[in-house]
Amino acid sequence: MMSFRNISMYYFVCVAVHGITLADAATFSIQNNCPYTVWAAAAPGGGRQLDHGQVWDLNVSSGVGGARIWARTGCEFNESGQGKCQTGDCGGLLQCQGYGLPPNTLAEYTLNQFDGMDFFDISLVDGFNVPMEFSPTSGGCNRGIKCTSP
Ligand SMILES: *[C@@H]1O[C@H](CO)[C@@H](O)[C@H](O)[C@H]1NC(C)=O
Ligand SMILES: *[C@@H]1O[C@H](CO)[C@@H](O)[C@H](O)[C@H]1NC(C)=O
Questions:
Q1: 44 C-alpha vs ligand 2 centroid, how far in Å?
Q2: Is residue 150 part of a domain?
Q3: Which ligand approaches the C-alpha of residue 78 most closely?
Q4: Which ligand has the shortest distance to the CA of 57?
Q5: Does residue 78 form part of some domain?
Q6: What InterPro entries does the record tag this protein with (predicted)?
Q7: Rounded CA gap, 95 and 46, in Å?
Q8: Range(s) of the domain holding residue 115
Q9: From start to end of the chain, where are the E strands?
Q10: What is the CATH number of the domain that holds 101?
Q11: In this structure, is residue 144 part of a structural domain?
Q12: What backbone torsions phi and psi does residue 5 show, to the nearest 5 degrees?
């Protein structure tokens, strides 16, 4: 394994998630700025391979508590989307059905809560695997958060 921490000094933010919320739904734009391939994962949402610079636009419908987006590293999948990842693996599936295994940096969100507000954070409760940024791009809040090291 390479040392991600050394790389992250040069690539300040590795995986960027930008969220646009609508009335009861949201669109997340997940971009891989890492110099290596990651396999983005979302619960709800599934998963997708993202090479350097690639973007996954993900639509989710509202409201789920405990929704999260994370990145997986060192994955290998066969044609049926089954395999394994070194970090963040979700039961060996390319299209995640549930959460990933620690360590993984988590972008968490809950939509349309009290007073119609959305909540988001980056959590290290499951450890750290890649530097992440999570920022809203609508709703009068444009202050994003970053987590670049544990
Ligand atoms: C996501 O939602 C936006 C806005 O409603 C829509 O324009 C876009 O086509 C949707 N994308 C997918 C992949 O469903
Ligand atoms: C993919 O891997 C799974 C789990 O090892 C296996 O059951 C399945 O048959 C494989 N599919 C292909 C197309 O190789």
A1: 24
A2: no
A3: 2
A4: 1
A5: yes
A6: Osmotin/thaumatin-like_sf, Thaumatin, Thaumatin_CS
A7: 4
A8: 6-139
A9: 15-21, 25-32, 38-43, 46-50, 55-61, 67-72, 76-77, 83-84, 106-110, 119-123, 132-136, 145-147
A10: 2.60.110.10
A11: no
A12: -65, -40
Number of domains into which the chain is organized: 1
What was the pLDDT predicted at 1? 33
Residue with the smallest CA separation from ligand 2 atom 14 is: 78
Question: Does residue 59 have its Cβ closer than 6 Å to ligand 1?
Answer: yes
pLDDT tens, residue by residue, 59-70? 888 656 779 999
Q: How far is the CA of 77 from the centre of ligand 2 (A)?
A: 9
> Which ligand number lies closest to the CA of residue 25?
1
Residue 1 in any domain: the answer is no
Atom number in ligand 1 closest to CA 57: 13
The reported pTM is 0.83
d(CA 150, CA 140) in angstroms, rounded, equals 29
Nearest CA to ligand 1 atom 12: 59
**Higher confidence at residue 141 or residue 40?**
40
Instruction: Grade residue 141 by pLDDT with cuts at 50, 70 and 90.
Output: low
